[in-house]
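Chain X:
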Amino acid sequence: MERRIIECVPNFSEGRDMGVIKQITDSVVAVEGVKLLGVDPGKDTNRTVVTFTGDPEQVIEAAFRAVKTASLLIDMSKHTGEHPRLGATDVCPLIPVSCITMEETVVYARRLAERIGNELQIPVYCYEHAAFEEKRRNLASIRAGEYEGLRKKLADHTWKPDFGPALFNERSGATVVGARDFLVAFNVNLNTTSVRRANAIAYDVREKGRPLREGNSLTGKIVTDKRGEPVMVPGSLKSVKAIGWYIEEYGFAQISMNLTDLAVTPVHIAFDEVCRKADARGVRVTGSELVGLIPLKAILDAGRYFLSKQQRSAGVSDDELIKTAVRSMGLDELSPFIPEERIIEYVMEEKPGKNKLTAMSLKGFMNEVASESTAPGGGSVSSYIGAMGIALGTMVANLSSHKRGWDDRWKEFSDWAEQGKEIQNSLLNLVDEDTSAFKRIIEAMNLPKKSDEEKAARNVAVEEATKYATIIPFRVMETAVKGFRLIREMVENGNPGSVTDAAVGALAVRSCIRGAFLNVKINASGLKDKEFARDIIQKGCEIETVAHLEEEAVMRLIDKKTDSVR
């Protein structure tokens, strides 16, 4: 069963004293099972963003301890900084990551908020999905007036805290706890020191926009509605919050953005739009920076976007897509962009590549196969052969996408290359999965069998493990056979100088499917569930027949194309 995982990203009003920051993060890692993913202090903002993940119970315990530590070490009456803030722990959002719904995350957020209010006597407001009323959903509304206006806010009965006393806590201020979707904090660097110009660009792009003024001028009277509220002119980007500020540490101004829904406004669209709006105001974008972490998909999508703008194939490795995104947005202008420290999926891996066959060198994998161990064996090798075969088809698609004279066909071949990359990556994952499946059988067979109950439990475990070990090579077959469309297309219509490479891919995929089917049959033969065994073998026969016909079709095409050299 997969773990339930939530992420917590508390923002603490201390970005200069590393001793204080360390005591806060130490209180987080002291909770067993919690993984600290990132610590981002800012001197000018005097604020630190901490990111950690784990089981929901563990995370809210770690969050409480961090808030408590901050309340003891940070004195808000002496705090200054560029970023809006309300308290020592300014905001503490929980984000569902894996196997948990937003509704469940809300329950945990409110439990945390209640505990902070009751045990630490800190006023707590709940925001976003955890809000109890609509006007408190927006963090900016709760934070309005900041720490300096908090005493007055608490005296207003309409702003009574959701938890904790409605009394001004001079030392700790107030804390905002919530449950929200994944948010990317993204700053764009400008070649100006002007906060006014930076803010103008921020107002151009942020969803909220700017107040409408009479005469459509910068200095005209603000137009208000019947309730006396300013009439707003929306900005160009949905689900984006933005302000402009000057960072003395860097010596230039930035547009600081929160991208609250990457499905609506991805990071690359936000970057390009700021570039356009800045250019219109005579300002140049020089680079950008991430605060905290970003999902892998967001970076890969950015890489594809910028390659597409160049009319280049996006069917390249993840590493190349990441490099393209980093170069295109200048994410390494202020400090090196290290994927293992910035991309959430990479950071969450305990030890990337540990014990993975796919992390080995080609020579290392060969030597591992040749060793005395029974795994990896034919199943893993078959899957690897298939991945290499599809990779040849992907290579031809990439070469074809930028062949001289074929400029108008780049998108056609880029699409094929992306399909190939998806298939080859799936097969690569199955290399390790096949070996894991075999190990499950060994573990099941080694279970105790002294009593009748133990024997029965062992037999069930062996049957389930053997089924799984039958399903994995069948998935290899199902995955690999999809690649013949790519290979045949490349042989028929790809770069003429590389069609034989695609044909070699067809031979490899055929071998992959035949080899995987041998594993299906040998594992299925040991199953007690004969109906399952017959069904999977029948389906395997159908796939093998298709693979045989596809390989023959590709070879006939190659024969026609190479007739001239006979």
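Chain Y:
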Amino acid sequence: MRFLAGSFLLMGIITTVLTGCKTAESHMIQGDSHFLRGDFELAIDEYHAATGKDPNLLGVEQKINKARFKLELKRGDLASQSKNWQQAERHYKEAGTIKPNDPSVSQRLQQLLDRRANLHFQEGQKLLGQGNPFHAIAEFEETLAILPTHQRARQAIEAAKNEKKNREETAEEEFQKGLEALERDEYQLAVRLFASANNKNPYHPNAKRELTNARRQLGAQIATQADALFTAQDWKQATQLYRKAIGLHPKLPGLAQKLKQAQQESRAKVLIVEGNKAYQAGDWKTAYQRFAHASELTQAQKEDLSLLTTVKDNLAQEVYIDAQNLEKAGQFEEALNGFREVAGFHPDFRDAKDRAEKLEVALRTARRAYQTACRAQQEHDLRIAREQFRICDELIPNFRDVTKRKKEVEDAFARAALLYNRGVKAQNRGDHDRARILFEECLSITNNYKDVKRRLDEARDTLVQSSDFEDRYKLACRLQEEGHLERSKKIFLECQKIQPEYRDITQRIRKIDATTEAASDLYDRARQAETTGKLARAEALFDECLSLVTPFKDAAQRRKRAQRVHKIFNEGLRLEREKHLFKALFKYEEVLHLYSSHPDAQRRAQRISELGKEIQSAYEKLLESQRQGKFKQALALAQQISQRVKVFRDVNKRIPLLESEVDYQQGHDLEEQGKYKEAAPFFERAENRTPGFRDSKVRHSACLNQASKPKSK
């Protein structure tokens, strides 16, 4: 029977779903299903839906209250697990209003109190074990405020108070001894005693102030000792004492400058010793480097640099001879570097400067001749290539691969002569097609050999006259339609020489010239758009140009480049809008690498660079303010940087810490003024934002304690 009832229930649910119309009973069934799965919110919704369908439905209110009760318990348990005590207590009490006598509510509330109290008790025990009875007392008091029956907390607070009293008495005793030591000018002992007193009782009213005073006086005393060592030229000991004095009294006037000077003199002394060792070993280069560096650093050891001139002359002689040998061996670049090196540190040594200048002129001229010859060789202008290679070889024998290239040019001339002679023979015997091929091969090697161009034109003319004229005309028309205007015009002109009035040759040539002129105008306008940085406009003009003539100069390559740069620039704009300024700067610099005259990229890159300097300056001020404890100023600078750039170093990580520092300082100030109720939220915010931040948790509890105490009349 139970199986049949379940089957009918299942069939009812399926029928309801298939028909798309749910009854009050189906809502009840669905609510029960959600309740069993622990989805109490969905169960409540289904129960309310059932009430909407049938207000007189029995048992719905009880189910709603039961689901609400379970939901509040569940929410309270989750809040308790995350240590959100107030929220957990609120949910448990709400569950208690639904079922006032349910033991699970009172049990949970008691567990909540026990857990909260034990957490504070454990923290107090931990602090007491660390030798901090001051904060431990606050934790124990918080434990008793939550759970007055906590016996261990009552025992522990007495122990903490005794420890606190002992530490205060010991601290006061050491403080008085520190004052006595200060009167005897025993500053080091006074610093030790005041520091110990301050550690034992951080709340001592005068220990911290007297510690600072003693440290300053000790720093001044050590600085005086360092001055005596500096006068005695004991640079190493003076440096150590100056550093110690700065650590004790950073604001002592002139101390940083004296430390820097002592460090320089100490470094110079080491360099002089190293220079003397190198001199003894005959290592002139190392000796000169050490002596020259020491000369820049020292003001008091100039007499120890008497060997500098000798070392300088010996080094110059050594490098000069090496440069001479390199020049004789044909290693002119290395020789020039040697003569330049001598002229750099010893300008008056022999003729090193003149030899460097002459060798530099020869190398520069040889490089220019070599580059001109290589370019002419690539352009098949072999006569210029031969002459420039000859000039280069005369100036600098065996310069780079000039010998190999000269041979290549001579071999090319020989091949061109052979092809020319064979072409002339073919032309003389009437084989004009063979002659054309040979003359074209000759021109592919050199473009100015004898009268090869004229002979090629003659061979082509003869071929045009003897070939199928109509086929060539049709080929020219097809090439014109495809945009290959240069080849098309050439064929039309050849045809025009044979029959000037044939069909529309003249009109077609004029149209080709007009189209070419229009393409040239579009190309020039596109180049101008490129120059002014209007890349989208340039890309469109190049497209229009190529639609008229294909190919046309380097329009295809320029269009592709403009398209790429336009994409990079737009990416830079997107990054700048998203405040990724330095990534955007990289994109703008990439644009300027390809189009140095791009005005918008220049302007934006310059603006980002200037902004980067401002942000760097603000970051340095932020660090300095944080070191000095000016947390409000540091936070303002960090927020200013964060508003201007999305990511800059560790600013985003510093902001929460600085906010906690500001809240902590404000809470501390209010606590000092006795405004405990106003101070508590600041400590609470600092702890919530940065868990474990200083002693904000302890101070928050202490402030709440103080605020809850009745004011004495």
